[in-house]
Amino acid sequence: MTKKSTRPPFEIGGQSIDPGTRRTVKIEIGFLADHTLMGMTAHVIHGRAEGPVMFVSGAIHGDEILGVEIIRRLMGVKTLNRLKGTLILVPVVNAYGFLAQSRYLPDRRDLNRSFPGSSTGSLAGQLAHTFVSEIVARCSLGIDLHTAAIHRDNLPQIRANLDDPDVLQMAEAFGTSIMLHAHLREGSLRQAAGEMGCKTLLYEAGEALRYDEKAIRIGVRGVVGVLRNVGMVPLPKASAKPSGQASAKRKASILSPIRSDRSTWQRAPIGGVMRASKGLGDRVRKGEVIAQISDPLGEVNEAVEAPITGIIIGRTNLPVVNRGDALFHVARVKSASDAEDLIEALSDEVDEDPLFDGVEIV
Asked: 59-112, pLDDT tens digit by residue?
């Protein structure tokens, strides 16, 4: 006979979830102009045993759909059936932008500059307030899933306050190749959550309105890695270790993500048509030519040089550029060569991870 849990039920959105159960809850966020009721869906897994409360959120920017797919696949990860504590999965925070395939809300505000919000504020402020009061206030840990803006692409990376030892440990457990020490931005979810004592990671990968299979798998594995690190799910069973150099690379990619404390964008020196010679994950040297911009006839040509030595962690996907457009995001790292090796090793490793055995992909 299974011993009955003594944990109290988890209360959220006016509903009560018993320990050892899971439920999808709809939280009202307001009405559209035609009085269509809008809601924010949260799936709550309330474990039988005590443990932390963590949220995982997607689509704070409505066109950043990668997080939606990461959370959908997390729903099928079997190890969550043995969860300790409580996990709140919110695939679409900004339902307004998600339906409109837009980064913003109907009031043209950026939700991730509107936290902690206000119940009597703008539409963005009201949504921010609802998410903070209903979700963040119940949590001690959080993972916020993002992508680059439209027509840009991001290398899978963690952005967080890496000076906090607990956050650093979570970032290392997530297991991307690059961790970027990122200062808090006014009005961001990370800032609001931090002020409430909720330690939060931000995962960046891929492009708005697009799926990227590798980035999705890294995201799923990263969330599970953090859950394991904080004791919410059990560690995987020991398996036979591969030998040789491949084993060393795999081990390094999990245990030693590379930290960067500085990054910068290189912008277009002129308008025109760009031909890039470097892509995501490539190492570059300061002053190295990484692209050429010319007029449509090729009569005017200007080189784009790397602003610092490091790794390209973000780039535009548009070859047609205007002067001042952000082209390449470069992160300074201690060893660009090691970072490049880790990126390659992680790409190989994630495809072989047994975590994805039996997880629905299509």
From this structure: 999 999 999 999 999 999 999 999 999 999 999 999 999 999 999 999 999 999
Which SS3 state, helix, strand or coil, does residue 320 take? strand
Q: List, for residues 16-45, the tens digit of each pLDDT value.
A: 999 999 999 999 999 999 999 999 999 999
Residue 237, judged by CB atoms within 10 A of its CB (0-12, 13-18, 19+), counts as exposed
Residue 96 tokens read as 């307004």
- Contact call for residues 56 and 87 (beta carbons, < 8 A): yes
How far apart CA 343 and CA 325 sit, in angstroms, is 26
The three-class DSSP label of residue 66 is helix
Helix (H, G, I), strand (E, B) or coil at 105: coil
Cα distance between residue 98 and residue 245, in whole Å: 44
Note the pLDDT tens digit of each residue in 132-180: 999 999 999 999 999 999 999 999 999 999 999 999 999 999 999 999 9
Query: What CA–CA distance (Å, rounded) separates 110 from 165?
Result: 30
- Give pairs for 275-279: CB < 8 Å, separation 24+: 275/319, 276/315, 276/319, 276/327, 276/328, 278/306, 278/312, 278/328, 279/312, 279/315
pTM for the full model? 0.93
